[in-house]
Design brief:
heterodimer, A: 125 residues, alpha/beta, Rossmann fold, B: 362 residues, alpha+beta, Beta-Lactamase, Heat Shock Protein 90, five-stranded mixed β-sheet, 11 helices, 40% helix, 23% strand
Chain lengths: 125, 362
């Protein structure tokens, strides 16, 4: 069964490039360009995994993560925090808030596919 | 007294019983307590700025095992909002070497602290702005190079491989930039343990042997008291020592010599690195320990580096209650040295008792 990954990220370039990498590996990709939209899509599409950016306009990644984990409809979806910026104790903080992993941009495409596969289950390929 | 009263730094002196014996005007202003009221009382019984009084009180408590401690305290100030005060507490001994209380020097480092904070924020934002486009470049180039977007002609393949390679290089540079910006001196010396001085020097020269050989520099090591126990964060202390050696080799003279020495000094050991290279103008002897400081103009310099080696080394050595001393003149080589943090086998009280026992002997 094809696994779905939801990318919550405001940078279009990151969305497009991540999508290309994941689709080539056989994942289906949905995207949302802000936290609010991401929360709505997470409830509607119930993806197998969420890739979540931290620095976004509106509600940021930390707040989005908190709300995802508070909502019973989305709390069980594994979330990988996906960031380009050094955050003080970011790794610890994302773990404390319930994320399964913490991943740095720019990512290595093969590593991203491997990590996504690990938490979302194997892709169709 | 007058000299202390007119200092720019705050000074608090506490007697061996832990009571305040002296508080100059700057210290009064910083801790928020009047000398008239404070003298003769314990610090923790004073009313003033609690963050600062508690921090100094805690450092005084550590004087049994540390010779000197330094920390920066965030203080709420009614008029100036938040200020940052660097507190350096050191043991004081009388002429017979017995404990005679402790001296704390307070300095308002708010400007320095804020500049540093800004610099870190700036670097972090720059990193984000650079990494975002790089993420796209790297992902696309990788996918193309792997043929995931269709088969490539040989020249196209080479171009894609090259784009990917350059992207990786850029990423590495950005990472380095960020690492420089987020150096946190407060994080040094966290894992102190006891180990023999000879463990510190094992393999210490290895990274510099090749660069030294390339420039015909005789790199030597001589160790006294290798069995003596140090009390330090071994990883950090090695880094500090290596940073001094690296500098000595870097600024050494082609065909010259760099001598790394551990020697006895009083009851303890001293680490020293001597070179016969270009040396440091005495007017820079303090500034060379500042973050990013370099004697050379960064645009025309011959020596690489970011101006952080001595800053980091000094941060580490200070976190162990010691200080790096430099002796050098321009063109006449340099000598950098610091007392190694030794394991304190007896507390000052135990010392006193030991003396009594000695005298009690028939």
């Amino acid at each position: 069964m094809t696994r779905t990954v939801l990318i919550i990220e405001d940078e279009k370039l990151i969305v497009v490039s991540t999508q290309m990498v994941l689709e080539a590996a056989g994942f289906r990709v949905e995207s949302a360009n802000n936290g609010e939209d991401g929360l709505a899509k997470a409830r509607a599409a119930t993806p197998d995994l969420i890739l979540l950016d931290i620095m976004m306009p509106g509600i940021d990644g930390w707040e989005t993560l908190t709300r995802l984990k508070r909502d019973p409809a989305t709390s069980r979806i594994p979330v990988i925090v996906f960031t380009a910026r050094e955050h003080a104790r970011g790794h610890q903080r994302s773990a404390d808030l319930g994320a399964v992993d913490y991943f740095r941009k720019p990512f290595e495409p093969d590593e991203l596919v491997e990590l996504v596969g690990k938490y979302a289950g194997e892709s169709a390929n | 007294m007058t000299a202390i009263a007119s200092l720019m730094d705050g000074v608090v002196y506490t007697d061996p019983a832990g009571n305040v014996a002296l508080l100059n005007a700057v210290a009064e202003e910083l801790v928020g307590a009047r000398s008239l009221v404070a003298v003769g009382k314990r610090l923790r019984d004073l009313t003033g700025r609690p963050e600062l009084l508690q921090a100094i009180g805690a450092d005084l408590g550590r004087m049994a095992e540390e010779r000197e401690t330094t920390r920066t305290v965030e203080v709420h100030h009614q008029l100036k909002d938040l200020i940052y005060v660097r507190c350096t507490t050191s043991r004081v001994h009388d002429h017979r070497g017995r404990p005679a209380g402790a001296m704390t020097v307070l300095r308002d480092v708010t400007d320095e602290f804020k500049t540093d904070q800004l610099r870190n924020q700036f670097l972090s934002i720059v990193a984000h702005e650079l990494r975002t486009p790089l993420t796209g470049i790297k992902a696309f180039a990788t996918m193309m190079a792997k043929g995931a977007l269709g088969a490539l002609a040989e020249r196209q393949q080479r171009a894609c491989d090259s784009i990917r390679e350059q992207a990786l290089r850029l990423e590495h540079q950005i990472d380095k930039l960020i690492k420089l910006g987020t150096l946190d001196v407060a994080a040094y010396g966290q894992q102190k343990e006891d180990f023999a001085a000879k463990d510190l020097v094992a393999g210490l020269l290895a990274p510099f042997e090749e660069p030294a050989r390339d420039r015909r520099i005789a790199l030597t090591l001589a160790v006294e008291g290798g069995e003596a126990l140090l009390h330090a964060d071994q990883h950090d202390l090695r880094r500090a020592c290596q940073s001094l050696i690296e500098n000595a080799v870097k600024f050494g003279r082609d065909g010259g010599k760099v001598a790394v020495v551990i020697e006895r000094r009083g009851d303890g050991l001293r680490f020293r690195v001597d070179d016969d290279g270009i040396g440091v103008d005495p007017r820079y002897h303090r500034r060379i320990f500042e973050k990013f400081f370099q004697v050379e103009d960064p645009l025309t310099r011959h020596h690489g580096g970011a101006g952080l080696g001595l800053f980091v080394a000094n941060g580490i050595v200070e976190a162990h209650g010691c200080r790096i001393e430099v002796e050098s003149r321009l063109g006449q080589g340099a000598s950098f040295a610091f007392d190694l943090p030794m394991t304190v086998t007896r507390t000052p009280e135990a010392d006193d008792r030991a003396v009594v026992t000695e005298e009690d002997k028939p």
